[in-house]
Every structure is written in structure tokens, then in C-alpha cells.
Amino acid sequence: MALSDQQLQLLARDAMQRAQAGDFAAAEPLLAQLVAARPNSGQALHLLGQARLKLGRFAEAREPLERAAKFLPKEIAAQVNYAGCLTVLGEHEASLWALGRAAQLKPGDPTINHNRGHALEALGRLEEAERAYDEALSADHRLMPSLIARAGLLEARGDWLGALADLDMALTNRPDDARLRLQRGELLLRQGDWMRGLPDYEARLDIPGACYTPDLPRWQGEPVERLLLYPEQLDIESDAAKRDTLMLARGVEAVVQCGETLGGWLDGPIIRRSESLAGFSAAAALRSLPYLLSWSPEAPPPAPPLREPSGSAREPVIGEDTWQAHLAARRGIATTIRLSGNADWLWGSRRSGPSPWYPALMLETA
Predict the structure, then answer these.
(1) Domain of 306?
(2) 205, 226, 245: which is the final residue of a domain?
(3) Which of 74, 128, 174, 250 is 20 to 30 A from 159, comparing alpha carbons?
């Protein structure tokens, strides 16, 4: 049964009120009903597409947004929302086309240029992407998404100073943004700047769900009765967790949390993740020790000895930066580790020759 004009007006008003209140789940079926009655209404199509975007139903949002963009060729928001939906769906070439139409309506718009940069970056057209971010920032030099995106591109092509400048600018606007601080910290650490990089790197512990964190006070270097050291990886049996345990469990008297694999090797007090943490005063992530104990990459504390199972092999080892190679080096076996171009910042600037981390270790750059 067809709805009267009065009924459609009431339906549209009810849908708008719900959408404005943020109740998109309730607004969406009303808007779908409105579109069914008025299939050529660009505004109704646009509102339906927006509601589905808010609900994360991107595939369903595509068709009404595409039609809205055709019926509303001079409305920038219709073109931009359609382009945004295409980007989420991975249709980057089509997204660029829609953004091109939006740019004709509003040349030099920073948001449109940023979205162009995002689509170009996804297509691997990095130089064009960087130019698009440049154009966005020339119109709005504090545009956060473009600052962050351009910083990543500049870092990738080795322009450390440019990337750092963009991150510094972004952090003037959002000084407490943990992800931005971590990004700047990692950039500085990869340059070997531990003094400035380590404090920012601690921001990783403030990102919900990014690291494993025991339910204990965070150690800040003060004297405590019983300290827990732990690998921050969610999977304690991962290569990264075992590698960090072998490389970093040193320099302080503490109980080390470890998995089954390393439990028989560590010559000192250990605890498993399944065990109670009663009696511990505080805990520190292993990757926080260089910051908390003011380590130098050129002279880390010596590693404590390991248990030696009887009959274990001691032939020379050559390999990648894995926990097995670390175990061999820490056992005093002549070991060569080949480091890739994106080697862990913990190795510092010394990427070839003898390493201060283990007496029997030589480094090579792959």
C-alpha cells in the first residue's frame, strides 16, 4: 500500500529525529522504507547510506550512496561519503573518481585532499599520496590525519626529520595521545636516539589491549620487596616473547614470568602466567627496563647464566634474530645473527661485528 505524502513526511521526521539522537539502528529501517517509497530522492538515499555507514554495514551502504552521488552531483558530502564507503570496501580507484568530483566542487579542500592521499597510498602510488597530503596540510597545517599519514610516508622513505616534525606538530594538538607518542618513540629509537625515544615508547603500555599487563602496580625503578618481570606479548610462547626474555631479563633482581619453553633454561626464580601473583609488590615489562634502568645500547648489563641440560649441543650457530639464536648466544656458543634492514631498535647503532648483548655474539647486516 502506497504511503500518502503526509505519512512520508511523518516517516521522514521520525527517522531524522532518531538519527540526530544517534539511534541509527532505529533510523535505518525507517529510511529504507522512505527510499522504497521515493527511490529517486537523493536526500533519502544519502541519509540511508549514512545510517548504514554509522552501523558499519558498508557493503549495504554502497548502493544508496552511489545513487545519492548521482542524484546530488553538486553536494560535496554525497560525493565524499560515497568515496569513503568505497575506500573501506577496498575500491580505491573508484574512490579516487568520486573524490575527483568532490574536488571539482570545492578545490583545495583539505579533507578531500587527505582522502585522496589515503586512496593513493592504498594503491601504492606513494609520491602522489604524499603530494595530496602536502596539499591538505598547505590548507590546514594542523590536520591530524594528514600529519600522521605523511609522517608514515616520510619515515618509510628515510626522511626521519620530516616525519619527526609532523609527529611533533600532531602532538602539540594531542599531547596525551598514546599512539602518537609511541609512533614518535619508535621513530627515535630506530635512529638510535634512546634518550628521547624511550620515554615516548612507554606510551605503548597505555594503549588498551596492546600489551599483556599483570594486575600489579607498574614499577618505576623504586626499591620494592618482590618485583615481577614479564614479556608484554599476549602470547608468552611467541618467538618475540621468548627472545625478549632472553635478551632483557637482566640488570635487576626479580622473578621472571616465562612460558614452558624457557622454564628449564633460566637459572633464577621464575613464575608462569597461570600462577598467582600474590606477594608481588610491582611489575615491569621487559621492554621497559632500558628506560627504567637507564641502559646504554652500547653497554647493557651482563646476562645472568643459564642452566645447561646435560648433553646439550654447542656447535656454532648462524641464523636470524630469533629466540633460538639468542639462546645459543646467551649459552656462550659462538653465534652469528643476521639483522634485516628493519632490525629491532634494541640492537642500537652497532649492526655488525661483536655485540655487547652477549659475549659470544657477532652481528651481520643482511
Answers:
(1) 218-366
(2) 205
(3) 174
User: How far apart are the C-alpha atoms of 135 and 110, rounded to whole Å?
Assistant: 7
Q: What is the Cα–Cα distance from 337 to 22, expressed in whole angstroms? A: 55
CB-based contact 266:331 (threshold 8 Å): no
User: Rg for the chain (alpha carbons), in Å?
Assistant: 28
> The domain spanning residue 122 has which CATH number?
1.25.40.10
For cell 585522496, what's the residue? 116
Mind spelling out the 3-state secondary structure of 288-357? HHHHHCCCCCCCCCCCCCECCCCCCCCCCEEECCCHHHHHHHHCCCCEEEEECCCCCHHHCCCCCEECCC
Confidence of residue 5 (pLDDT cuts 50, 70, 90): confident
Hey, what's the cell of 118? Answer: 589515503
- Same domain (yes/no): 173, 232: no
Is the domain of 67 the same as that of 196?
yes
Q: Are residues 260 and 154 in the same domain?
A: no
Burial class (CB in 10 A: 0-12, 13-18, 19+), 338: middle
Q: Is 319 in contact with 325 (CB distance < 8 Å)?
A: yes
- Find out whether 246 and 260 touch, Cβ atoms under 8 Å: no
3-class DSSP assignment, residue 1: coil
Phi, psi of 318 (to 5 degrees): -130, 125
Residues 160-172: tens digit of each pLDDT: 999 999 999 999 9
Closest CA to 120 of 141, 105, 103, 106: 103
Supply the pTM of this predicted model.
Answer: 0.82
Cβ of 165: how many Cβ atoms within 10 Å? 15
Per the structure, the count of domains in the chain is: 2
Quote the CA–CA distance of 125 and 303 in Å, as a whole number.
Answer: 46
> Do both 45 and 91 map to the same domain?
yes
Q: Which amino acid is at 153?
A: L
Assess whether 159 and 285 both reside in one domain. Answer: no
Find the largest Cα–Cα distance for the chain: 89
Calculate what percentage of the chain has a pLDDT beyond 90.
78
Q: Are 146 and 134 in contact (CB under 8 A)?
A: no
Q: Which residues contact 256 (CB under 8 A, 6 or more apart)?
A: 229, 230, 245, 249, 266, 268, 269, 270, 271
